[in-house]
Amino acid sequence: MTITSPEEFIRLRASDEPEEYRRAGQEDAPLSVWRELIDSFPEMRVWVARNKTVPVSILSTLSLDPDPLVRSAVADKRKAGVEILSRLAQDSEESVRLRVARNRKAPRSVLGLLAEDEWDEVRSIARKRLAQD
């Protein structure tokens, strides 16, 4: 199935029915629906980022969001790619950089940036991951 409108996504996300709630996290939607959600419903941005099918172009937009919770959700995404993860590796929020360091798909180039991070925990995780590869 496909989510056909922002209102449907919001209804599914707010549902007490496990099957409907699951749909909000796992079903795709047209690009126009994702764009309208992030433009008109800022409180849904973190949930858009957590959807398993959200396009990389939407993740790129969300990686610039003012809310660090949204950027952290993007940093968790395996499909975020080098460009997005590189941007988030330089984020002002430690929690966002930590999520990038823990992202299984973070490339060595990004981990190299984080291996010199100002925060001990980020630096430590990045260095451990670089040593494992």
Automatic annotation (TrEMBL):
Domain of life: Bacteria
Gene3D superfamilies: Leucine-rich Repeat Variant
Protein name: HEAT repeat domain-containing protein
Organism annotation: Saccharopolyspora gregorii
